[in-house]
Amino acid sequence: MKKIVLHLNSKGLYSKFLLRLIETQENIKNNSKKETIPYSVLYERLCRNYSSPKSEIKETLFFLAELGFIEINCRGAKLLFEIKDG
User: What pTM does this model have?
Assistant: First the structure.
């Protein structure tokens, strides 16, 4: 599957959420070679950053999966996009 390339010029909620997912994946890659971000790491990072319960974060993740930004499997989420500055 071809990755979606985002040019983030806006500072909207979903843009910040997608940036946070990229940061989370980079932290995971530093510790291991996994491409899938485990749910435990996603919930720990995103619930704390957005002061939201797991149910709201899960709903947002499924919304982003429907839009094609991420792929959800039984272990976690895999990002299907990359971010370009400008």
Answer: 0.81
